[in-house]
């Protein structure tokens, strides 16, 4: 936004319906670690990252699936990303969540610890979490986890009813602090 562009990728690779940067020193190659938040039964990105030889962890509590290893050796977790840790997160109803649900959500820092990745680098963290990204990014900045993430792919959302208009100033400030990193 107001921060200068620190790097512009020259070699973008389409992986599923997302892009990764394949310029040195950002090239994704084994051994690589990928976290993918928000799946909604669309596994194109996750399968493509597995095909590149990465260890891939998928997270989406809205799918109501149990934790399991997928056929391609990626791991699905019935857990979501959050700005705080709880086993009783009540998601808002939207096009993906139509009934009352309770989710287990964890911060990136807590997930890394739980999976034994606290001393590892996440090569790609992909997040498509239907407006929750705003508070999650705020937490990621506060907890300094971006130093452990090489590439960050996020889909931003603004719905008519959320976030509230009065929160836009804070969202803009978080976006500015994130862009300045």
Automatic annotation (TrEMBL):
Organism, as annotated: Candidula unifasciata
Methyltransferase domain location: 12-162
Protein's name according to its UniProt entry: Methyltransferase domain-containing protein
Annotated InterPro entries: Methyltranfer_dom (IPR025714), METTL24 (IPR026913), SAM-dependent_MTases_sf (IPR029063)
């Amino acid at each position: 936004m107001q921060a200068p562009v620190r790097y512009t990728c020259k070699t973008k690779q389409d992986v599923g319906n997302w892009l990764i940067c394949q310029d040195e020193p950002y090239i994704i190659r084994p051994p690589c670690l990928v976290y993918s938040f928000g799946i909604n039964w669309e596994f194109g990105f996750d399968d493509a990252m597995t095909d590149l030889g990465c260890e891939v962890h998928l997270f989406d509590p809205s799918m109501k699936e149990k934790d399991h290893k997928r056929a391609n050796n990626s791991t699905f977790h019935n857990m979501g990303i959050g700005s705080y840790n709880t086993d009783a997160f009540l998601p808002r109803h939207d096009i993906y969540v139509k009934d009352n649900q309770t989710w287990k959500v964890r911060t990136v820092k807590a997930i890394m610890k739980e999976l034994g990745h606290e001393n590892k680098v996440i090569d790609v963290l992909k997040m498509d979490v239907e407006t929750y990204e705003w508070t999650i990014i705020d937490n990621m900045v506060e907890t300094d986890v971006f130093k452990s993430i090489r590439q960050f792919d996020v889909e931003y959302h603004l719905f008519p009813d959320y976030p509230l208009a009065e929160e836009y100033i804070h969202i803009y400030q978080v976006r500015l602090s994130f862009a300045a990193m």
